[in-house]
Amino acid sequence: MDKIRKNIDIFFLLLIILIFFTVTFVLDEAEILFSSYLLLGFSFFVIVIGYYTSTVIGLLASAFLVFGYGSFIIYESVMKNRALEYSFWWLILIPMFSFIAGRLGDNTKEIIDIATDYERKLDDLITVDEITGLDNINEYIKELEQEMKRASRHGFNLVLMIIEVQYYRNLLAIYGRAQTNKIMSIMSNIIEKDTRIEDKRYKILENRFAIIMPNTSIAGAAKVKTRLKEDLKEVVLHGKNKADKLVFSVKVGIAKYETSIESTFEFTDIAERELEFDV
Length: 279
Known about the structure:
This protein has 2 domains: 2-125, no CATH class; 137-277, Alpha-Beta Plaits (2-Layer Sandwich). The protein starts with a helix and ends in a 6-residue tail after the last helix. The mean pLDDT is 83. It is built from 8 helices and 6 strands. The strands form 2 sheets. A 4-stranded antiparallel sheet has the order 2-3-1-6, sandwiched between helices. The protein has a two-stranded antiparallel ribbon with strand order 4-5. It has 279 residues and is of the alpha+beta class. Helix 1 (2-26) runs antiparallel to helix 4. The longest helix has 36 residues, at 90-125.
């Protein structure tokens, strides 16, 4: 990445030097021809094309301009004998503008792609939800797969619980993002309080939590479900001067692991379908 940064600095400096040379020497005439202003405008045009597309496309654009300008000079020379009024510098300057701007753009795009790739990899490595402090969906998928293999190998009970906060979009519209995040954080604390140490808790969507419950029967999970629905029904939101008691509706789906379940996605889907029957 350091090499790319250096390339960007070098090509940017070359571009500035070339513009300075053009303005100082090529346009340094007592009476500047309109054609020189026009060609300077075309030069900035190929700079933009080269920077925002690629070096190759920029050079192709400059080749058309050079061909057109060169043809014009030949026509003026042969037909009107006026070639000396036109600067031949532009035949060199326009491709140079295009090449330097294109290389600057290519290196800039490369460093942006590298940064984007690093950001994506970093997102994959992050396993904690920043709002609630619970593990996120990346960790959920990994640990659910491990627990399913363990339950299949040793034959113990495994239950998956999905908790969905209803009317989440209305919540955002009324309280805003910051207050809604605070509400979800309070709910995560309630979930941690109402579950066992060995249970694993996750925030898998904006309005959805998941709990992996090893060595738990459906009957045991049903008791936890009742307790959670009762405790999550009311949340106290503390403001600067007062505390508001908010009433919420949550749905809880429970699914028991069976050896016929082939993937974490299937297991999750079974638990999510149970949300529809929770009234």
